[in-house]
Amino acid sequence: MARIYNFSAGPAVLPLEALQEAQADLVDYKGSGMSIMEMSHRGKEYDAIHNEAIANAKELLGIGDDYSLLFIQGGASLQFAMIPMNFLGENQSADYINAGAWGAKAIKEAGLIGNVNVAADCQKDIPTRMPDLAECNWTDGAAYAHITTNETISGAQMKEIPKVEAPLIADMSSDILSRKLDYTQFDMFYAGAQKNLGPSGLAMVAIKNELAARGNIGLPSMLKYQSYIDANSLFNTPPCFGIYMLCLTTRLLKKKGMDAVFAENAEKAAMIYNTLDATDFYRGTAKTDCRSDMNITFRLPSEELEALFISQAAEAGMKQLKGHRSVGGIRASIYNAFPIDGVKCLVDFMKDFEQRNG
Q1: Of the chain's two ends, which shows fewer C-beta atoms within 10 Å, N or C?
Q2: Which one-letter DSSP state was computed for residue 291?
Q3: DSSP notation for 138-193
């Protein structure tokens, strides 16, 4: 087997140990005679996986029984619409921070439902960044405030979480469980699974029960958070295999210990940023104090050199380094499951590439 170093922003690298366990049990899960993909979501085998995944995630996040942990199909993009549908009523306004492509998408969806106040807008700023807390103009009596903690495309991460009077909701798709954070400061947070949690097609949502209870009761059942709470995310057939992979991933996080995960993530990011800062050949695209530990974005002196860098890196076993099509450049996504040896390999390649082309 030849595993490459996969720098994809999502769907992204999964823990090898989780993939190997899933491979071993793919045809016959623990002697049941069935694959996870074949068994009933009401059966005892799957029920145990489902409830362990919830318990593991809540333990890792440090949230208690005042939160419900939900699994919802449609990824983070469906959450962009579900949130205002549930909580943005007539004659109300919701606050949003726009610091990049994903914040902008959330704002666009909310605008279809009701009134939106853009509390801060730095989406088009170069170098890319997150807004200073002092520049945020929050609305008195807002239905909720929505932030995106890490902008995957721009490589900017929110280092300080704002304190607001309204319920605080966060899209944490690309940095959930990647750094030390008090998750109880959020009334709701959510993440598409395909970066730090599991495969695509699934969103993990944590929501305070009191907030969910205030949701719009006139919505169809599948669009109400309360429906998922009442049925333990089993109102309909859930994405069973994705939840199974999330369960395996959270087991491994518990086994490794989150302090070790956080320390390794910081070390991996520092190795690449130190390499960028040691030369004028590479140029990081995010403001220094907003640099993401998960998505490291940079440019080379020319687009021709960037194309050569991507091509030669792929030949050396490092793939998916091409920046998002909307911005170009290079992007190295190094989520929890990305091995530190892969970062060392990239750093060595960067130094060698500069020697040959600088």
Answers
A1: N
A2: B
A3: PPTT-S-EEEESEETTTTEE-SSPPP-SSPEEEE-TTTTTSS---GGG-SEEEEET
Q: For this structure, is 171 an active site residue?
A: yes
Q: Taking the model in full, what pTM does it have? A: 0.96
Residue 195: active-site member = yes
What mean pLDDT do residues 181-185 have? 98
3-state class (DSSP) for residue 320: coil
- Residues 316-344 have pLDDT tens digits of 999 999 999 989 999 999 999 999 999 99
| Cis preceding-peptide flag for 127 (omega within 30 of 0) | yes
Q: What is the pLDDT of residue 358?
A: 85
DSSP letter string, 122-135: -TT-SSB----GGG
Question: So where are the chain's domains?
Answer: 17-255, 257-357
Report pLDDT digits (tens) over 120-166: 999 999 999 999 999 999 999 999 999 999 999 999 999 999 999 99
pLDDT digits (tens, 9 = 90+) for 248-280: 999 999 999 999 999 999 999 999 999 999 999
CATH architecture of 257-357: Alpha-Beta Complex (3.90)
Asked if domains 17-255 and 257-357 share a fold, the reply is: no
The DSSP symbol for 331 reads E
Q: Domain 17-255: which CATH class? A: alpha beta
Reply yes or no on whether 230 is catalytic.
no
Radius of gyration of the chain measured on its C-alpha atoms: 21
Q: Which of 58, 95, 195, 322 does the annotation list as catalytic?
A: 195
End-to-end CA distance of the chain: 35
Q: Which helix (H) or strand (E) holds 6?
A: strand 5-6
Instruction: Report d(CA 3, CA 104) in Å as an integer.
Output: 35
Q: Are 320 and 312 in contact (CB under 8 A)?
A: no
Active-site choice (58, 95, 171, 187): 171
Instruction: Report long-range pairs for 39-47 (Cβ below 8 Å, ≥24 apart).
Output: 39/240, 41/234, 41/237, 41/238, 41/240, 42/234, 46/240, 46/244
The dihedral sign for the CA sequence 14, 157, 173, 108: negative
Average pLDDT over residues 298-303: 98
